[in-house]
Amino acid sequence: MAFTKEAASQPPAPVTGDRGLKKNALGTRDIVFMLVSAAAPLTIVVGIAPLALAVGGPAAPVIYIAAAVALALFAVGFMALTRHITSYSGFYGYISQTLGRVVGLGSGLVAWMSYNGLQIGLYGLLGIQASLSLKSLFGLDVPWWVCALVAIVAVWYLGWRGIEVGARVVAVLLTLETLIVVIIAVVVLAKGGAQGISFASLDPANVFNPGMAAVLTLGFSAFMGFEAGALYREEARNPDKTVPRATYISIAFIGVFYAFSVWIIVTAIGADNVQAFAAGHLNAGDTAYIVAAKYVGPWCEMVMSVLIVTSIFASQLAFHNTINRYTLSLSREGIFPAWTGRISPRHFTPSTAGVVQTVLAAVFVAVFAAFKLDPFTQFVIWVNTPGVLGILILQALTGIGVIVYFLKHRDIRLKWYLLPSAIVSLLVMLAVIWLFTQNAELFTGAPAGSPLNTVLIAIAPVVLVIGIVWAAIMRARRPAAYRRIGGGD
């Protein structure tokens, strides 16, 4: 049956001891900070944008604008859906209630796997950057995995203390990383860059070069986490207004921030030189640091080396909160064990889910460290890549769900642009997924056609199929539990 807002005025029946998450804890600003922090703006500018420049050339800033426009069109339909279907389960809940519980459970497992992959993998990058910062600033030689484990504990503590506490922390960290980019931009523009202020990034000859199609997926991957606002509905003040507003603001900010920041790098190095320069510095990963030191001074490079660590940390905290809420949803609906859905009676947070996620992250770090695997080329890439593809698949399934739902409910009066925007964004999303699979080597670093690429690409689809089979078995053997999938009744 259709799961309408009227039928879903109450959240799913909580597990024993579940008093519910803290109500009215988040406003629009808090959610914006959480969503933008998940995207780790400074991390993308320093770590990923140079790859986009090396492959796509001076037009690389355009991929972020293109991704922002496509995701804004996606958000139009997604946010409209949230006004007619109440769910505290993010993509999992909305897919379940539009495409059915069988596909829904598959999407729930993909969501849980994907966000864990994104969050856990980044501990490798955090460990590297923190270790380098401690070495350069204090002369301390601390292994990357020690830094990662310390960060894991800190993320757990802030997640346990409360969503509003985490929101305040990421607000400060996000403000600092934005400020340093603004400082660099002002100085670069004041000095006229390397070849004057140029808009070669918008030159059609640069925009439509073959490399741009390959790096378009990098643009979309930079927005991972923006859609998690729907997960905070239970804790948001006036969620029908705050969640959509925060989602649109986040997409706009991320798109403008990335495009502007990468254009500043193009201007600082010169449109004629930036592609070769970025390609020559990919292994060192110091393109943005060189720009900072050259135009602003060594102190700026030093500050950036610290802020890159806090940027990743803020992202980790945002993803930690997202994962905990997916775990809570799957527990409430009988998919995960009931004990994983226990709520802290003191802070009204999904405390047990937080412990589970923390232990899982620590185990991954310990295993990769024990086998002396590279924290970036192996840990980050192997664990992150399935997560990126999984989120893209979830976005596509949600887009299909939006179209299906509103075509079924013709009695709902829609804005004229809603269905066209949903269809266009879905087509773009499917194209991006295809481009991702065809250019996986950009993410994995392995040669094209490598078995490693095939394995990493296969993980998300395999998890989706496992969930679908699991749901089909539940439908036959545990019909009562099956009906609870995705917040059903």
TrEMBL record:
Keywords assigned: Cell membrane, Membrane, Transmembrane, Transmembrane helix
Superkingdom of this protein's organism: Bacteria
GO molecular function: transmembrane transporter activity
Region span, Disordered: 1-21
Chief place where the protein resides: membrane
Transmembrane segments: 31-56, 62-81, 102-122, 142-160, 169-190, 210-233, 245-266, 302-319, 352-373, 379-407, 416-436, 456-474
Topology in the lipid bilayer: Multi-pass membrane protein
Location relative to the cell: Cell membrane
Gene Ontology, cellular component aspect: plasma membrane
Pfam families recorded: AA_permease_2
Protein name: Amino acid transporter
